[in-house]
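note to self — DONT lose this again. spent like an hour looking for the file last time. sequence + predicted structure for the chain T wanted, 287 res
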Amino acid sequence: MNIPLNALRAFEASARHLSFTLAAQELNVTQAAVSQQVKNLEARLAMKLFRRLPRGLVLTDEGQALLPALSDAFGRLASVVQQFEGGRMREVLNLAVVGTFAVGWLMPRLAAFRQAHPFIDLRVFTHNNRVDLTAEGLDFAIRFGDGAWRGMGAALLMEADMAPLCAPRLAAALTTPADLLGCELLRSYRADEWTRWFAAAGLPDPLIHGPVFDSSLAMAQVAMQGMGVALLPVSMFECHMREGLLVQPFATTVSTGQYWLTWLKSRPHTHAMRDLHDWLLTQARVL
């Protein structure tokens, strides 16, 4: 059945507003034109889509069945058309980022990315390093680890040297690394991080009973409240240190992993994906 698009559009707008007049205003045509388009559609379908009442329109059962399909179709069409601007197609990229990196490094640079690549709509999702690109419909994920994830391509962004960070009042009582043995030590789900740091500081592995966090951001908040000492990636909390919220009492650092940009090896990169990949690596090298 060959049905004019204008007739379907006139019906969809009229059905949403339950008014030919309001539909005409939306479509920038006359009320008479909208009414005639709907009448033509009803004639082609051989059924009534509206009941015309003195106080307005009411959808018939047939009209109610048709409206959702048309609204969805026109919505999808509008979404696709909006991707074209200035002779170039806009692309949406879904990027998952471990929360610490998102807040400590990426967010302050998003405006620069937007300025450099205005045709990319970047959607950022935070995670705690457990992510499934396929199941979650992601293009990239920035993760913390050793870069070895099965089926994944990985590009090193930066090291993540870790050191004890704490509130200033706690730091004032710490003169040597051994003083940490009497502190509440906040830890992540990676059980060996404090072990590695104490080894680097020349101290035996302590027995730690502190709380465990799956988010470095949450752990940092607890540390800022003076409730313990957290082992954190220093570069991700430089802003907090400049503001005096966190202090690094000792220079000793340890690396337990790096930040990586990852993607599915089985998926070819689009133009937008290549742009984001190159921009992230360039920005990381500026450090």
